[in-house]
Amino acid sequence: MVKVAAVVLLTVLYPLRAGAQDGAWVAEGTAGYAGFVDDATKNYWVAGGGFRRYLTPRLSVGPEVVVMGNSNLLTDRHAIATGNVILDLYPRTVRRLTPFVVGGFGLFFSRDQVRNGPFWSNDPAFTAGGGIRARVGERVSIGAEYRLGWEPHHRLTATAGFHW
Description:
Layout: H1 2-17, E1 25-36, E2 42-54, E3 59-69, E4 76-88, E5 97-114, E6 117-135, E7 140-150, E8 153-163
């Protein structure tokens, strides 16, 4: 048991020691699909973006804004603004393909059309999920991710990132 604890501790703390990659920035754009789960699933397109900063070779943080709409854009649209924490399962310079997990907290904004007119609301929000990212150049990456979130929804998106 002590050996397992030592291995886990080294795995968690080692990236903090390797500061050579510290401070790298990434800007990302996102597009894809979201489904809100209520009585029946309502389908939406997703577009968004954000940026993040690597604090260690595997851990990055940053804000993200995502807008969701459907064919009735004037009466039914949503937006989520979150602060995200992303953990790459491998340091980004080691492998061409990097799986990652992501979690974020923030605010969910919504506009729906009801009988008496538009209804605006905002609530606390979170998203959690994971995906895989591929380096396609020294400064460019592409990826795919799946997230679950509150207001209850799931989303599948593709991302493109620019690293500097």
